[in-house]
Design a protein that fits this description.
0% of the residues are buried. The two termini are 15 Å apart. Helix content is 60%, strand content 0%. The mean pLDDT is 88. It has helices at residues 6-21, 35-49. The longest helix has 16 residues, at 6-21. It is an all-alpha fold and 52 residues long.
């Protein structure tokens, strides 16, 4: 059974969208952030926390 209520997680998406819109006046910026290591770290953490 999922522990996270998907409707409440939607609030996070809504908040991030609003936050992002606050940067509309800034010049374009190309992120150099490498998603793969962050993904690996987050998934490893999720695996370790599972069942805690």
């Amino acid at each position: 059974m999922p522990q996270f209520d998907q409707s409440s997680l939607q609030l996070l998406t809504e908040a991030l969208t609003r936050l992002e819109s606050g940067f509309d006046n800034l010049p374009d910026h190309q992120s150099q952030f490498d998603l793969e290591p962050a993904r690996d770290a987050l998934l490893t953490t999720a695996d370790r926390l599972e069942g805690q």
